[in-house]
C-alpha cells in the first residue's frame, strides 16, 4: 500500500492545470498535492470509458470515423453521462444514414462543436487573464510600438 502511494502516477493531464481549475472556484480552499494527480487519473479513466462506449456506437452504425454525432448518441444512451447533454445539445442530428452520410459530414460537425467549446474556453481564459492582470503594468505585452 505504501509503495502505491510513493509511486508517481503516470498522468496524461497536467496536475498543475487541474489545480488551477480547482482553485478558480473560490469555495475551494487548500488542495493537497495528491488531489490534482488523482483527479488527472480519474479524468483519464472517465475519458477512456466515454471513448470506448462512443467507439462501440460508431462500429454499431457501420461508420469508420468517430464523430461528434456518435459522441452525442453515447451521451444520450447512458444515464451516467446525463450531465454532458447540454454540451452536445448543439451537435446536429443528420438523420440515421449509417456509414456514408455520417462519415462525409462528420468533420464539419465535429469541428464546429469543438470550436464552440474552445471559444467558450478561450473566453473563460481571457476573462481570468483580465482579472489577474488588473494591477499589472503594461510591460510584457510585446516589443512596443510599430511592430504589428
UniProtKB/TrEMBL annotation:
UniProt-listed Pfam families: CBFD_NFYB_HMF
Protein's UniProt keywords contain Nucleus: yes
Keyword Nucleus carried by entry: yes
GO MF, any single term: RNA polymerase II general transcription initiation factor activity
Boundaries of every Transcription factor CBF/NF-Y/archaeal histone domain copy: 12-75
Sorted UniProt keywords: Nucleus
Disordered: annotated segments: 94-148
Subcellular location: Nucleus
Gene Ontology terms: cellular component: nucleus
Biased composition (Basic and acidic residues): 94-133
Domain of life according to the entry: Eukaryota
InterPro entries: CBFA_NFYB_domain, Histone-fold, Transcr_DNA_Rep_Reg
Name of this protein: Transcription factor CBF/NF-Y/archaeal histone domain-containing protein
Organism, scientific name: Opuntia streptacantha
Amino acid at each position: 500500500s505504501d509503495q502505491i502511494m510513493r509511486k508517481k502516477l503516470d498522468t496524461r493531464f497536467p496536475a498543475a492545470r487541474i489545480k488551477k481549475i480547482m482553485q478558480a472556484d473560490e469555495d475551494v480552499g487548500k488542495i493537497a498535492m495528491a488531489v490534482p494527480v488523482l483527479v488527472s487519473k480519474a479524468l483519464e479513466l472517465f475519458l477512456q470509458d466515454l471513448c470506448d462506449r462512443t467507439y462501440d456506437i460508431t462500429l454499431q452504425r457501420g461508420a469508420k470515423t468517430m464523430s461528434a454525432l456518435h459522441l452525442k448518441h453515447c451521451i444520450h444512451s447512458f444515464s451516467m453521462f446525463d450531465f454532458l447533454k447540454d454540451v452536445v445539445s448543439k451537435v446536429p442530428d443528420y438523420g440515421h444514414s449509417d456509414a456514408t452520410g455520417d462519415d462525409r459530414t462528420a468533420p464539419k460537425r465535429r469541428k464546429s462543436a469543438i470550436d464552440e467549446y474552445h471559444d467558450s474556453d478561450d473566453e473563460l481564459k481571457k476573462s481570468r487573464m483580465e482579472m489577474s492582470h488588473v494591477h499589472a503594468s503594461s510591460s510584457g505585452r510585446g516589443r512596443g510600438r510599430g511592430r504589428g
